[in-house]
Amino acid sequence: MTKTISKRNLICLIAGIALVILNSVSCKKENNGANPAPIPNEPNPEPGGNDPAAPNLPGTLYDYVGTRNNMPPYMQAFMNANPTLDNTPVGNPITNAGATLGRVLFYDKSLSVNNTRSCGSCHHQDKAFTDGVATSEGFEGNLTRRNSMPVVNLRFFRSATMFWDMRAKDIETQTLIPVLDHIEMGIPSLAALETKLTGISYYPALFKSAFGSEVVASDKIAKAISQFLRSIVSFNSRYDQGVATQFSNFSASEKNGMRLMQADFCTECHSDFSTAGVGKNASYLIVDNTGVNTGFGSNNGLESNYTDKGIGEITHKPADQGTFKIPSLRNVELTAPYMHDGRFATLEDAIEHYSTGIKQNPNIGIQFSGIQSGGLVFSAKDKNDIIAFLKTLTDQSLATEPKYADPFK
Ligand code: HEC
Ligand code: HEC
To answer: What lines the ligand 1 site, CB under 6 Å?
Structure first.
């Protein structure tokens, strides 16, 4: 088969001969079809070289300061009774301008080295800020080690420690870790991040209104994202409405599922201890992980030999080996797959684990330490009822709330 030299390639060839040294890359890349493919823009390696489209922000800022005040009365009372519960530091109160900047940063792909990943790439609003896969793809397509976590009600975790292994001491510290992570976003240094964002047209004004100065500094980036994250609270579920109406909105199946969760000690781990137990209105907030287990976090019997040491990897204490931060079950319907490694695709699989898959190990939670039969052995009806109840913990408004949405869309 003979190849004809296209007109375009011919021009390239002549140009190439005439300008030997300047022989352009685009000529070499050109195909010889009748409709040559458009020449892609080479990514600009200079910091600040790619100015993305500006975010769409409302004329009047959304209210982020007041989100805590929209809680149902029983939750408001719980918060008032536990004033130390909110981990907002004195030095970083939420302001509407600060959280607005945080929202932009959260969804801006410029926070990854090749402009392919934002925080929102792995924390999707419609999935209660998780991403639907066992482990997430970072900026070069490499996979994270663990399952993405929901970033909801984070401000009510008293000890403030973040990640499955609680290695970040607070939210402010957490926010810059994915940016610098060589799998997640790959920015080489905080200085490189500051330079890059300084060169993006919309940031100086956003920093000025949030912090009074146009200077883009990494501690302000951390503060702004933290303000946005702390503003994400979620208490608009059928469960929360049920508390106010003695669960008159619940089916018999949902009520039975709720009772089983209380009687089988699920709430001892998956709620604050003070509201755990039969007949109590559990907050379904994890306010702390200390005190529920032998060590710092908890173990629900996934493995007898821990492939991931979890918190133990950080603290090196025997009692912490194989333990993890307990996930909140609020919005669990939206956060599949489940567990720190995303091993269970469905809620059915997760409940089957508690029914028949519990494996004894030295650090298993006391709630399960006596169980020899491999689990709590639920009937098919009980499993259905627990799942029906878990779905009452879904807050549909969270998934669509405009102030938490991607401003680049
Ligand atoms: C490539 C996917 C990916 C990107 C990008 C990403 N995350 Fe995550 N996020 C994860 C995974 C996976 C975990 C769990 C990691 C672990 O525990 O080791 C996580 C955990 C978290 C947690 C801990 C929540 C908790 O309850 O302890 C927070 C907060 C968080 N991410 C916020 C962010 C922010 C802010 C950004 C952007 C600066 C971001 N993430 C970018 C995947 C991602
Ligand atoms: C000893 C404390 C403990 C008890 C009791 C407990 N869990 Fe868990 N649960 C955990 C921990 C810890 C995890 C995360 C484990 C991991 O990923 O390594 C978890 C994870 C889950 C998940 C997956 C959540 C997610 O986002 O990945 C579901 C669903 C769940 N538990 C439901 C229940 C139910 C239902 C019960 C009662 C039958 C129960 N749990 C009892 C500690 C407990």
So the answer is: 106, 111, 117, 119, 121-123, 136, 138, 144-146, 148-149, 151, 154, 162-165, 174-175, 178-179, 184-185, 225, 229, 325
Which residue in this structure is represented by tokens 């390696």? 45
Cα 173 from Cα 170, distance rounded (Å): 5
Smallest Cα–Cα separation from 154: which of 128, 121, 119, 180? 128
User: Which amino acid, 82?
Assistant: N
Q: Which of 229, 225, 116 is nearest to 176 (CA)?
A: 225
Q: Is 352 in contact with 312 (CB distance < 8 Å)?
A: no
Give the number of whichever ligand sits closest to the CA of residue 221: 1
pLDDT tens digit sequence for 360-380: 999 999 999 888 879 999 999
Token code pair at residue 379: 């009937």
Q: Give the model's confidence band at 69: pLDDT under 50 very low, under 70 low, under 90 confident, else very high.
A: confident
- Mutation to probe ligand 2, out of 146, 153, 269 (largest number of atoms < 8 A from CB): 269
Task: State how far the alpha carbon of 228 is from the alpha carbons of 86, 225, 347, in Å.
Answer: 15, 5, 29
Residue pLDDT, tens place only, 44-59: 444 444 578 999 999 9
Averaged over 47-72, what is the pLDDT? 85
Which residues are CB-neighbours of 22 under 8 A, at least 6 positions away?
A: none
Instruction: Name the average pLDDT for the chain.
Output: 88
Distance CA 164, CA 86 (A): 20
Distance CA 282, CA 262 (A): 9
Distance CA 183, CA 139 (A): 7
Residue located nearest, by CA, to atom 2 of ligand 2: 269
- The sign of the torsion formed by the CA atoms of 69, 71, 73, 77 equals negative
Closest ligand 1 atom to the C-alpha of 165? 17
Query: Do 289 and 166 form a contact (C-beta atoms < 8 A)?
Result: yes
Question: In this model, does residue 286 exceed pLDDT 90?
Answer: no
Is the distance from the beta carbon of residue 269 to the nearest atom of ligand 2 less than 6 Å? Answer: yes
In angstroms, the CA 320 to CA 363 distance is 7
Ligand 1 geometric centre to CA of 123 (Å): 7
